[in-house]
Amino acid sequence: MKCVVFDNAGTLLRRVTAIKQLETSNIFYETNTIGIANEKPGRIIVVMQQPTKELIKHDKTIAEYMKENPEKFEISYSQKSIEKQQLIEKLENDTTKISQITTTAKALIRKYDIEICSGSAIIIDTTNGVIEYVYTAGGVFFNETKNTINTLNENSYEVYIASGDNKQSLNKIAQILGVNPENVYDTANREIKKQIVETLQNQGNYVYMVGNNTNDELALKSSDTSILTVEQKEELPEYLLKSVDYKIDSIGEVIDIILKNN
Q: Both 150 and 168 in a single domain?
């Protein structure tokens, strides 16, 4: 069987984001959160599993929330391996309140007409044990997303979604696109995405991986055919652009590539 594994934000969904830099209190609208994390080796992205509208009801620090609810957050992107308990210990002295996320959620809703609220996340400097950014993300489907998934389904390709986004938003996306919920992997970091691809290959499948940034790098390298989409128009490292089999400007081009290789 032939399988197609998609990242979500920036691949299936045109991502929009409101980010607050805590040191300056500035809010800006930058989609390339992976790029921000990559600016420092010790930075990681932590995704909150609880929907934003419920998360912001808590009147406590983010560190306290994470310590009390370890099942409600996941490390979705990191350049170096770190365990949850290690992270909680590193944030022991951080005083950032959950209410900081409220400001990014409100800013996102004011600025954009979004189809999907992907949820909220934080960027942490693990070297210094400091939360540097909080953000809320959402988005709209790219013009060709729905048609691309429909065409793959009609041609009996098995479609998967492996993303760093939270479970609630991915389940909604899968329902809209007609993707089997058992084929959806939430808060999938670089290693998990790679494992998904390799597991499918070990089961005898030919695997296409479609991603858009360095968080998809390992899965792209492991896949039988790697496809990098630049439809989100983010700045990407040159090595990533040169390492893939195909670079596309629109998600709809996936169909041409796959049917040509059929």
A: yes
The residue count for the chain: 262
Is 186 found in the same domain as 111? no
Question: Which residues touch 41 (CB under 8 Å, ≥6 apart)?
Answer: 79, 80, 127
What is the enclosing helix (H) or strand (E) of 103?
helix 99-111
Q: Is 6 exposed, middle or buried (0-12, 13-18, 19+ CB in 10 A)?
A: buried
The Cα–Cα gap between 248 and 35 comes to 20
Instruction: Show pLDDT as tens, one digit a residue, over the chain (262 residues).
Output: 899 999 999 999 999 999 999 999 999 999 899 999 999 999 999 999 999 999 999 999 999 999 999 999 999 999 888 999 999 999 999 999 999 999 999 999 999 999 998 899 999 999 999 999 999 999 999 999 999 999 999 999 999 999 988 888 999 999 999 999 999 999 898 999 999 999 999 999 999 999 999 999 999 999 999 999 999 999 999 999 999 999 999 999 999 999 887 7
The total number of structural domains that make up the chain: 2
Q: Look up residue 32 and give its two tokens.
A: 């390339």
Position 26, amino acid: N
Do 124 and 189 share a structural domain? Answer: no
Domain limits for position 180: 2-13+143-261
Strands 225-229 and 206-211, bridge-based pairing:
parallel
d(C-alpha 150, C-alpha 37), whole Å: 34
Cα(262)–Cα(255) distance, integer angstroms = 10
